[in-house]
Amino acid sequence: MRYRLFGRTGLRVSELLLGTMTLRAEEEARRVIDVYADAGGNFLDTASAYGESEEVLGAVLRRRDRFVLATKYTLSRDVRDANAGGNHRKNLVLSLEQSLRRLRTDYVDVLWVHLWDRHTPAEETMRALDDVVRAGKVLYVGVSDAPAWFVARANTLAEWRGWTPFAGLQVPYNLLRRDVERELLPMASALGMSVAAWSPLAAGKLSGGTRRAGRLSAGEERVAEAVRAVAEELGATPAQVALAWVRASGALPLVGARTPEQVADCLGSVELPPEAVARLAAAAPFERGFPADFIAECEASPFAFGEAVIR
C-alpha cells in the first residue's frame, strides 16, 4: 500500500479508502477491516446518516488510533425536526456528539460536510468546524457533494480568518461519470485538496460482474469492454484497472466493499501505462464545455496572449 498526504496537511492516508456504509454485521465488518488493514489500508469512511455503520465500526474497531477515522454530518437525524439537518452549528454539534458515541471514540480524524446546504452561510459552517477542531473533537475537515464556487469561497474565508480549511473533497468519479473534471477537480488541484472519489466502480458496472443483458447501456458496455481488455492485457481484474484509472487522475478511490473478497480484489495493485490511461479515457469521451474548452483554445492562440504562446 502506498500513501499520500491529505490535502495541505501532514496526515498520511492510504491510496485506497474504505467506505463502510454497507457494513451491517459485526463479524463480517471485522473481517473486511482486517483484510484492509493487513494490506496497509488506514482510512475508514462513514457518516451520521449511516447510523448502523457507525455503531458497527465502534463495536469492531481495534487499534483505533492506527486508523484515519472519518465521518460526515449534514443529513437529517430526524425528518420531523427542522434543525436536525443542515450545515448550521446546532446540527454540526449534535451530529458530531452522536457520531462520537456511536463510534466509541472521543475524536474523529476527519469530519466531512456531507452535502451543500444553501441556507447556511459559509461563515457559520467554517467557524463551527474550526471550533470543533480547536476543541480536539475533530482533527481535519473536508467537504462532499458541493459546488466548486462554494468550496473555494469557504476555503478563502478560512485562510483569511485563520480557521481550519477543507483539506479534502469527496465527489462521485469514475470512467462513466467524469463531470467533476469541469470545475471540481481543477479547483481541488488549485487549492491543494485531496479528492476522495466515491462510486469509483460505477455501482459495479466497471468491476466485470454486470455483463447480463440489459444491465448496461451501449455506451456503458463500450467503456466496460475497454476496461476488461486492459485488464486482460495487464493480468489484472477489471475492478483493479478501473480503480487504477481513478488514481492516475490524482484522486483516491473510496470503495464500499461488502465482503473480504471484494476488498482483496480492490487492493490488487496495478500500474496503468500512459497508453492504457489514454485508451480508457478515449472509450469514455467527455467534453468539459464552457469555459474550460474555450479558455484552452485561447491559451494556445497568439490572439489572446501574444506570439510568445507558440514559442
TrEMBL record:
The keyword Oxidoreductase is annotated on this UniProt entry: yes
Top-rank taxon, per record: Bacteria
Keywords noted in UniProt: Oxidoreductase
UniProt keyword annotation of Oxidoreductase present: yes
Domain NADP-dependent oxidoreductase as annotated: residue spans: 16-283
Pfam families the record matches: Aldo_ket_red
Record-given protein name: Aldo/keto reductase
Organism: Lentzea alba
